[in-house]
Amino acid sequence: MLRKITPLAFLLLAALQTPAATRYIVALKQPHHNGGIAAVLHGEAEVAQHRVRQFENLDSFAADLTADEAADLKRSPGVRYVEEVAARSLLEDEAPATLKPAPELSQFSVQQTTPWGVTAIHAPELWNLAAKAAPVNVVILDTGIDATHPDLAAAYAGGYNTFDTAAAPVDDNGHGTHVAGTIAAQDNGFGVVGVAPNTRIWSIKVLDSHGKGDTEKIVAGLDWVLSKSKSLGGKWIVSLSLGGPEATTADREAFQTIYDNGILAVAAAGNTGLGAVVYPGAYPTVIATGAIDQTFTRAGFSSFGPNMGVAAPGVGVLSTARVGSIPAADVAIDGGATLNAFALRGSPRRDVTSSFVFCKLGRPEDFPPGVAGRVAVIERGCGTGTTDGCDLTFNEKVKNAMAAGATAAVIYNFKGGKDDIAIWTLIRQGCENTNCSDYQPDLDYPWILALGVSYDDGQKILASSTLIASARGESYQSLNGTSMATPHASGAASLVWSIAPDATAQDVRNALFRGAADLGTTGYDLYYGYGMVNALASAKLLAPSLFGLPPLPQTPKRRPH
C-alpha cells in the first residue's frame, strides 16, 4: 500500500477526475525514503481510483494516467521519465512437444526419470557436492506454480502475486510449473528430477492464465526480489521464460538494479527463429538463453542475435505439470505391451481391467450377451472403410455398448482411416441457427470409459485376450521452447553457485560463459552465444579445489561487439 510519493506526483494524481485507460511507470529523481519526501497521500480512495503501485526499491511508481497528465509529469523537475508499460508474455509457438507414448508417462508414479537435458548439461555430476551446500534461491517470474506438486512442494519457499497481492501465486496456466520442475524437481525416486534439486524456489506470478503480462508486473516482481534478498540474505537468481519485442527504460533499469545488487538474471532468447533476442533477455545485464535439440543443434524456433548468452536444451523437455492436468490414456494387453490411446471427449477418467468382446461396428445387434461386465472392442465407422454417409456416431456406439452392459469401450480406427483419434468425441453439438454449443444432456450423461486407438493397435488388441484400459490425468508434460531452455541455465547457475558460496553473481555468470561447450562457429557466435551450458565445466572453473584442480585465472568473458 502506498504511503508516500513526491508532492508533484501527488498533486497530479489527485487532480484526476476520471479513471485513465493507460498504464504508465513514473521514475523520480530523488529516492523515496531520503527524508525529502514530506507529502503524504491523503485518502485511500485516491490510490484505489488510480491503481497506484509504488516500487519500494526503484524510486518509481505505476499509475493510470491520461495522456495530458503523463505529459505534465514529464515536464516536472522531480520526474526523470514517464513511459507506458510494455507487453510481456509467454513466447510464440510454445506448444506441447509430441509426447512419447502414454505408457512412459504412466510410469512416473513408481519410478523417476532424468530428462535428457539434465544429463546433457552434466548436472548430475554435481548433485553430491550440492547436497552438502546451502541452497541458492531461484525466483521464477512466470504464470505461478502448482506448489502442491509432489516433485515441487519440498523445494517451494513462497512467492508473490503481482495481480492480487493478497493471493498466492497459483499457476492457472501450467507454464510456470513446468519451468519450476526443470530447475528443482526433487530427487525422490518418482516423477522427474530437475537440474538442481537442492535449489530453494520462489514463484512470482507476472503472467495471467493466458500467459499475458507487462513490464509493470516484471518491475514489481524484481522489486519484491530485491526486498526479499535484503531481508533474508543468501544467493539469488531470477529466471524469466517470457519476453517481448520492446525495450523499456523501466525494466532495463530494474534489471540493472538487481545486477548491481548481486542478483543473477537469466531469460529466454525468444521463439521467433529470427535474429532478434527478445527483452528482457536482450539486456546486457541478463543472460539470454537459446534452445537446442538432442543433437545439440539450434532449434529452428530459437531466436538469435548479438545479445545471445548461452544455449540449453529446449526441445522435448519433460517436466512437471499442474497436478492431474495432462490427459493421458493407454491400453495394456497380453505380454506386457502398452498401446497409446486417446480418451474420447466426455469419457470419465478411470481404469478398467477385463477380458473383452469384439462387437463389430457397435450396432445394437453387434453386442452378444457375453459382453455384459466386459470391455466392448468396436470398429470405427459403418463398415465401408469411410465415414462418408455414415450416421453411426461414437455417441451411439458407446451408448449401445452401455445398453449391452459393457464396462468400457475401445474403438479402433478402420484401415486407412484419418489420423484424428485425438479429437474423437461423445459430445454432440446442439445448434440454433448458426450458434452451436455442446449438447448439455451429453455432458451430463454417465458415460463408461471410452478410448480410441489406431487400426494397427486395434488388431493387436483383437489378437490378445485381456486388457487394461486407462484414462487419467498426468502431472508431467513435454514442451518445446526457449522457455524450456532458460530453466536449464538458471538451474545450472544455482547448482554451480551452491558449491562455490564465496562467488559473486558476476563470477557465476562468467563461469557459465567460460564453461559452456562451444557449438556452431568456433568461439562466440550469434546462434549459440558462448555455447551449451555445461554445469560441471563451469563448477570446475569456479571451485577448482573441489575437483583437485589448481586455481584458474578468472578472466571475464564479454560479448563481442
Structural write-up:
With 561 residues, the protein is an alpha/beta fold. The protein contains 15 helices and 27 strands. Strands 18-17-26-20-21-22-25-19 form an 8-stranded mixed sheet, with helices on both faces. Strands 8-10-7-12-13-14-15 form a 7-stranded parallel sheet, sandwiched between helices. Strands 2-3-1-4 form a 4-stranded antiparallel sheet. Helix 7 packs parallel to helix 13 (482-498), helix 8 packs parallel to helix 9 (249-260) and helix 14 crosses helix 15 (535-542). Residues 1-17, 34-43 and 95-105 have low confidence and may be disordered.
Mean pLDDT metric: 89
Distance between the termini: 44 Å
CA radius of gyration? 28 Å
Strand content: 15-25%
Strand runs, count = 27
CATH topology of the largest domain: Rossmann fold
Specify the helix fraction band. 10-25%
What's the arrangement of strands in the largest beta sheet? 18-17-26-20-21-22-25-19
Oligomeric state of shown chains:
single chain
Total helix count? Answer: 15
What general outline do the C-alpha atoms trace?
Answer: globular
Largest sheet: 8 strands, mixed
Could you name the CATH class of the largest domain?
A: Alpha Beta
Number of separate domains: 3
* CATH-scheme architecture of the largest domain: 3-Layer(aba) Sandwich
CATH homologous superfamily label of the largest domain: Peptidase S8/S53 domain
Low-confidence stretches: 1-17, 34-43, 95-105
Topology:
Layout: H1 7-14, E1 22-28, H2 44-50, E2 53-55, E3 60-65, H3 67-74, E4 79-84, E5 87-89, H4 102-106, E6 112-113, H5 116-120, H6 127-131, E7 137-142, E8 156-161, H7 175-184, E9 191-192, E10 200-205, E11 212-214, H8 215-232, E12 236-240, H9 249-260, E13 264-268, E14 287-292, E15 308-313, E16 317-320, E17 326-333, E18 338-340, E19 342-343, E20 350-358, E21 375-379, H10 394-403, E22 408-412, E23 429-432, E24 435-438, H11 440-444, E25 449-453, H12 455-462, E26 466-474, E27 476-479, H13 482-498, H14 505-515, H15 535-542
Parallel strand pairs: 6-9, 7-10, 7-12, 8-10, 12-13, 13-14, 14-15, 20-21, 21-22, 22-25
Antiparallel strand pairs: 1-3, 1-4, 2-3, 5-11, 16-27, 17-18, 17-26, 19-25, 20-26, 23-24
Helix pairs in contact: 7-13, 8-9, 13-14, 13-15, 14-15
